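Good day; I would like, with your permission, to put a structural problem before you. A protein sequence and the structure tokens that stand for its backbone fold form the material at issue. Thank you for your consideration; the sequence and its tokens are set out here:
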Amino acid sequence: MRPGYASGFETMRSLVNDRPLEVTGQLPDWLRGTLIRNGPGLFEAGPDRLRHWFDGLAVLHQFKLGQGQVHYRSQPLQSPDFLVARRRGRLYYSNFATDPCVAKFRRLFSAFFPRLELGANANVNVTRLGERFLALTETPMAVEFDPRTLSTLGVIRFEDPMADNLTTAHPHHDANRGSLINVTLELGPRSTFRLTELLPGATRRQVLGAFPVERPSYLHSFGMAENWFILTLGALVVDPRKLLLRRRPFIENYRYEPERGTTWALYDRRTSRFQSLQSEALFTFHHVNAFEQGSDLVVDLITYPDARVVDSAYLDALARAEEVPGGQLRRFRLGSTIRSELLTDLSLELPRIHPTRLGRPYRYVYGMSQRPGTSRDFFNMLARIDVTGGPELTWSESGVYPGEPVFVPRPEGTAEDDGVVLCVLLEGSDSSLLVLDASNFKELARARVELAIPFGFHGSFYTL
């Protein structure tokens, strides 16, 4: 039987230049701005089909809100991956878990092309650096786009020795300097994670600190507190030689080795030095938040006991409605010892918090969840978790699948939950933008898009 969420993993049947949406309910008068979302939207090129949710070619989505109205626009990101696939009618670049035959053929000649150009299917996240808007993934190149038209402006090529390094899709902003802080990974006999800073207008990243490792861990995000950056290096690790030889798709070179445990690489912003701690094995995609409390460094993560969640996101597994492991919201206290506690019994993924609480004590986290007893379904519920122990709030409808919830604070608000949550819903063959009151999780409005928007990853709200 075709699962109810199947259209969320299929190529969009049409793209939209600019369309006013029918709105039911009432949008808050203060809600004016633009939600830009990123994610896979195209899963085929001619006879070739991508194998994994994380591989879909990027499509940007824009919801412009104001004066009680919503306008929607979507455009494919004109990345090297997309342009070559459109020109050739075939997939060309190797992706997260898909390796087209042509990429295998090209590797036979890699010795003659030591700096073979990588693709830049930046389908994971969006961020802003000064006046530039960037689409991001874990390959070295970001893609700049126009936030008003979603037109692609070009690939950002960094003019520094880390130009070929892997990176994370979740940089942090330094509010004082207006810069982006990120982590790069140089592969080699002694691989090195580097903490870097990129200033607005620059194309050279400055190295803040380096942390060498023998077996690099898969790293999708990292944490930031007032005085610390936190790299959580879990037990999904790779022999660098396998990635450099590129005989398999990227993620299939990694192995889960729980005996290695987890290394916490902690960069002290006051001394500009790394130190490390060890704890039990885990796997994580997403940091939620981090802050200092007394002598402890508190780090909140979405964790998994192993890396099976990666396998559950292959498109064939999703089509068979196999079990989708739910992430756990877990708090780690890093001090003289490492202690951890589970903050909720609900599953959680794609977590978001109030943007001004990042790196500070906070109360509420919003995320996708699953109704209890529906682990063979996709994420079918939204949840608000009070990490101080207050009541949990949830929202769900039968047959409706929510994406990442984005919290937008009310401009004059003072309470941490004074604002709305914006979320793209999949409702069979259609999608909608849902607007919830963040304080009580009651629906305020919904704007219907008369086509299915595939499940995306991350987005941000801008006052454009």
About this structure: The radius of gyration is 21 Å.
